[in-house]
Structure formats: structure tokens, C-alpha cells
Amino acid sequence: TSGADIVNDISGGNLDSNMFETVSKYKVPYIMMHMRGNPENMMSKTNYDNITKDVSRYFSENIDKAKSFGINDIIIDPGFGFSKTTKQNYELFNNLEFFKEFQRPIIIGVSRKSMIYKTLNTSPEKALNGSSVLHTISLLKGVNILRTHDVKEALECVKIVSQLNC
């Protein structure tokens, strides 16, 4: 039978009521991303009291829910660009190390995103340097996995950071 090797869920189980049951059935790693709403309306849902605390609460609640289904191999993704303004993305990025408290691998996807190219007043195609900067900083803050468009350059960031004693 066909199945999955990993499930990447942009909604943390909120868009598919069978998500946790399905992930549990296949016993595969589960990437739980933070997002409010759905891709069509998420940018109208950027009102947070405290972005870091609100995202942390989301993970706390959803990790507990996933664990109740027997899902233990959970990777968390703060969801840069999903229901967050540019300012909120950077505030969340500044607090990335806070998410290590969950003792779960952290994955980020910032490669060529608007938080970079809008800040640099350029285009996604010309945002590689900004992506590499944020990849490097995220690794220094404890991120475990980089989701990227530019694999070679991201691997170079990993290689360089692995030589540091920070």
C-alpha cells in the first residue's frame, strides 16, 4: 500500500478533522505548523496579543492533542508568512530559541519569503543573501531543519555554523 514518510500539516490539524487520526495510523513524523485560518483568509487573522506567547500556546495545545492520538514524532514550524505581518515574523524570529522549550525539532521556512524581500526592497529571485542570513541566525538559535529553495547555499550555512562554538 502507498502511504506517507512524513506529514507536513500547515494547519496543525485545524483544517482536517481526521489529520491526527491519519498521522497516528501511519506512524510517521508530523510537521505541525502554526497558522490561523486558511490560506485564503490567514492574512486577515494577524491580531495577536503577543505573537511569541500566542504561537507557543498554539503548540502547547496542539502537541498535547497530537500526543493524545499517540503521535510522538512531532516537528514544530512557527509558520513564517502564515497569518503574520512582516513585523510579527521578525518578532517571532527574534524569539526562536523560546520554542526549544518544547523539546521538539524546529523547522523553519523563510527562504525568499516576503519578510526578506520586502525588507530588502527587492524580489524573491534576488533574496538569496537575505535567506542565507536568516538561515544562519536560525541555526545559531537552535533550529534543526531548514526548508529552502536553495539547498546548496543552505547546506553551506549548516556547514559553516557547525564549525562555530556558539
Describe what you observe in this structure.
This protein has 166 residues and is mainly alpha-helical. It is built from 6 helices and 5 strands, in the order βαβαβαβααβα.
Radius of gyration: 16 Å
The helix-and-strand class reads mainly alpha
Helix-strand sequence: EHEHEHEHHEH
Low-confidence stretches: none
Features:
166 residues
State the gist of this model.
With 166 residues, the protein is mostly helical. It is 38% helix and 9% strand. Strands 1-2-3 form a 3-stranded parallel beta sheet, with helices on one face. The chain has a two-stranded parallel ribbon with strand order 4-5.
Question: Layout of SSEs?
Answer:
Layout: E1 7-9, H1 19-26, E2 30-33, H2 51-68, E3 74-77, H3 86-94, E4 107-108, H4 114-117, H5 128-140, E5 145-146, H6 151-161
Parallel strand pairs: 1-2, 2-3, 4-5
Helix pairs in contact: 5-6
